[in-house]
Specification:
The protein is mostly helical and 61 residues long. Helix content is 39%, strand content 0%.
């Protein structure tokens, strides 16, 4: 246990994607799907800004 490449050695060092990164990935995956993008539950608008920025970067908007 604890050998090189073992999951036990990476315990506590695993990086999870941020919410913004998940939204960017979702936008990239859904780019070819026709239809509208709808964001529900915008408290401070962070998700909406991430979606807007991704649309701008991908030249969809």
């Amino acid at each position: 246990m604890g050998e090189t490449g073992d999951w036990a050695t990476g315990k506590g060092h695993i990086a999870y994607p941020t919410r913004a990164q998940v939204l960017e990935l979702a936008m990239a995956i859904s780019r070819g799907v026709p239809g509208n993008i709808v964001e529900f539950g915008t408290w401070q608008g962070h998700s909406t800004r991430v979606i807007r920025d991704e649309l701008w970067r991908s030249r969809v908007w």
